[in-house]
């Protein structure tokens, strides 16, 4: 484990001042000249919001980014050798973010406490249901009995949907553009979801134009439906079960 008391470098780049972890900072902290050679990194208490640099660090094994302002776990999904992740006291609000860690087969230690997502009653059991290979969660050892209870009582979370985050960031097309460019919007939404699942993007000719609807809401729903139906063909049984449960929960809430 990296000690959080290690001193931070005195010099901070302009990008760091904006909350982005840069390649130069990583090199300085890790005393390395190549991102792929970095095995451990301590960026504790750095006011970070953007750690997308980890997407370029496939061999990283231990990451400490506690006490920052990180809002998503998505960037860590690109670190297949990650064994320990310390990310307490950040801004992870949605517990479904742990879905991004599900394929990190070497992950054994996760410290996620003191994030907003950790406040729920079923937090620990839900994390262990999604990540049953963890040996320690929030500095507490995981037992076999606890994992068994997690499989029974932990919440079955649906994956975060990239298109929803994309829309929330203000990149929704204007209503007129949506009506005039239904194919492009459907394809874009589909490929963003496919990227989340590690699938290759679809070419334009794979989607047919959705029929125009009166009203932007109906047009948008048609686009999303086209994207979802196309994506379903690519999913395996486990992922389809997640989608089915999410659909069931949604129908019950209507």
UniProtKB/TrEMBL annotation:
Annotated U2A'/phosphoprotein 32 family A C-terminal domain residues: 120-138
Keyword hit for Transport: no
A cellular component term, taken from the record's GO annotations: photoreceptor cell cilium
Acyltransferase among keywords: no
SMART domains named among the record's database cross-references: LRRcap
UniProt entry keywords in alphabetical sequence: Leucine-rich repeat, Repeat
GO BP annotations listed: cytoskeleton organization; mRNA splicing, via spliceosome
InterPro entries, per database record: HIND (IPR045347), LRR_dom_sf (IPR032675), U2A'_phosphoprotein32A_C (IPR003603)
Protein name: Protein C21orf2-like isoform X2
Native source organism of the sequence: Acanthaster planci
């Amino acid at each position: 484990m990296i000690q959080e008391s290690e001193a931070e470098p005195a010099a901070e780049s302009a990008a760091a001042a904006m909350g982005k972890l840069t390649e130069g900072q990583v090199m300085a902290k890790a005393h390395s000249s190549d991102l792929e050679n970095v095995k451990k990194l301590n960026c504790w208490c750095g006011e970070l919001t953007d750690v997308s640099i980890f997407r370029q660090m496939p061999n990283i094994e231990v990451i400490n980014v506690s006490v920052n302002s990180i809002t998503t776990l998505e960037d860590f999904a690109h670190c297949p050798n990650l064994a320990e992740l310390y990310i307490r006291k950040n801004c992870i609000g949605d517990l479904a973010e742990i879905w991004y860690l599900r394929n990190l087969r070497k992950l054994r230690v996760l410290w996620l406490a003191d994030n907003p997502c950790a406040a729920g009653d079923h937090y620990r059991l839900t994390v262990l249901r999604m990540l049953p290979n963890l040996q320690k969660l929030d500095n507490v050892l995981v037992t076999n009995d606890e994992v068994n209870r997690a499989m029974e009582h932990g919440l079955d979370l649906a994956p975060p949907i990239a298109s929803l985050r994309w829309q929330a960031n203000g990149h929704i097309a204007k209503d007129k553009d949506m009506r005039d460019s239904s194919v492009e919007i459907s394809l874009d939404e589909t490929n963003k979801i496919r990227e989340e699942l590690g699938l290759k993007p679809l070419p334009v000719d794979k989607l047919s134009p959705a029929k125009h609807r009166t009203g932007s809401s109906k047009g948008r729903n048609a686009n999303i439906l086209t994207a979802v139906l196309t994506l379903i063909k690519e999913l395996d049984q486990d992922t389809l079960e997640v989608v089915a449960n999410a659909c069931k929960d949604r129908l019950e809430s209507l």
